[in-house]
Amino acid sequence: MPRRLNPPAATKPAPTDAPEPGALLLAAVASLSAQQRRHGAALVQQVVRSWWQALDTGLDLALPPAALRGQSGLETDVAAVARAYGESLAPLPVAQVADRIGALRAGLMPGEERARHGVYYTPPALAARLVDLAEQGRVDWATARVLDPAAGCGAFLVPVALRMAKALKGTEPALALRSIANRLRGLELDPVAAWISGVMVEAALLPLVRAGGQRLSPCRAGDALSAPVASDYDLVIGNPPYGRLTLAPEIRARFARSLYGHANLYALFMDLAVRWAVPGGLVAFLTPSSFLAGDYFKHLRRTLSDLAPPLTLDFVDERKGVFDNVLQETVLATYRRTGPRKKRPERALVNMIRAAGEGAGLTILGSGYFTLPDEPTAPWILPRHASETGLAARLRTLDSRLADWGYRVATGPLVWNRYKPQIADKAGRGAVPLVWAESVTPDGRFAYRCEKTNHKPWFHPAAKGDEWLLTRRPCVLLQRTTAKEQARRLIAAEMPLSFLARHPRGVTVENHLNMLLPLDDGPPPVPPAVLAAFLNSRAADRAFRCISGSVAVSAYELEAMPLPNPAALKELTALVVAGAARDRLDQAADRLYGIA
Predict the structure, then answer these.
(1) For residue 330, which of 278, 290, 274, 383 has the smallest C-alpha distance?
(2) Can you give the pLDDT at residue 110?
(3) Cα–Cα distance between 409 and 133 in angstroms, integer?
(4) Element holding 492 (H helix, E strand)
(5) What is the largest CA-CA distance in the chain?
(6) How far apart are CA 518 and CA 516, in angstroms?
(7) pTM for the full model?
(8) Which three-class secondary structure state does DSSP give residue 310?
(9) Model confidence over 490-544: pLDDT tens digits?
């Protein structure tokens, strides 16, 4: 996952009047020109080389990849700072060094290249937690064959190698090294990162390497998506790259069983992991949680349900202190490779992870259990917070959906930058109101306005061809993008008949809003005002959080969200008609979901 470039201070504090090496390196990196940043790999190599020398290993540093050999171009002062920073890392545990150097490597890569290849690294505490989960899944480190198909700079290879060495304690060093070398594998697209990963594993096992008289090179440079696949591994572990990508037809055909619509890198890696694992083996991955409910991942959910049902799911409950500045929600999960499902799998254990404080590791909060739905492509309804355990279980018993309330979801049709010439500050002949997302206020009211930069209030539809952009019926508008840290994920407002009556030609709605529209011409079973009041309730917000794993409030997730039977809405309807206060509406919605 994304990490900011944030090298640690040296173990021994520097004098108060002298900047520590990490701060000096940050300043040096910030001063590099775009041309100089092209030599970022050389800077990283200098840091690794200086760190290795400071360890006083008595061994030559592993030969770097051809892309680094003979590379130069570092200014003298930058090279000196890189050497000082590498030396300052020597007292740290190898896992922390791999993390710092990985962050440096990623931070020096051009942003476009980093995004294209999904280059993100894993904090050591989360890597250790995922290795713990694999161990709890009965991985035998003395015999297990392990693969990390996106090894980065060794975030998982290092702790796995240490567990293997511990399991072989007492074994003759040369035999232990040979065993580890035969069973530990890493793949990494970036040859520089692959080299760093191998260096980190050797450093972690340095006493064993010295005693055994052999060298290790567990990670090779290569693209996992084109590597040969065989069911050879007892554990496939890692943090695969993520991001949308366009696939060549032959690649899409290869992964067809797990793809629907847009492809995401991490979904391909999850499919591959299932293929690599032996029957009875484990997959342990740290990924975004969007696959749990998103429409584009429904075929991946079927693959996992049929071939590798989950054993454990750990959610990062509070990202601050774990994944700062990351919008993607994160889940650490283990899956048991099986054959086609013949009966319901055992339930999976659900936990929440919180940073326990600086330097204090992680706090693990048990949050109950999860059982796969009968329909293998259906969303997985799971608590995203320890307090939602009971609610998630109740949601899985409800069979009403938005369609039963008489609605469908559509995205606001107007993508404003495609219609710039038709958007105006003043109403002219034939103009209709343009409803922007700001018209849905944070407290759930509709207030037609356009006060933000570049927002204009009127749209001039073309005489022919733009009719589809207009709506003339009351509906519910809902913000399309919200983050889990916001007080509410669902922010809705009725677009009332009174507003539409003033504009008989219709109105158009901008693309950052969802529109919950009646399914047919007659009145829906649930009036729009009641639907809006329910969506704005704390109960609906908590229910939606048990489904949604991304910042998008998607049509698919809204239409899949379990709802109370519409016949049970009499109390809420009466309160809405009477203009009841928010707390009374919340209490009524709580009762609809059985929340005490």
Answers:
(1) 290
(2) 61
(3) 39
(4) strand 492-495
(5) 89
(6) 7
(7) 0.86
(8) strand
(9) 999 999 899 999 999 999 999 999 999 999 888 999 999 999 999 999 999 999 9
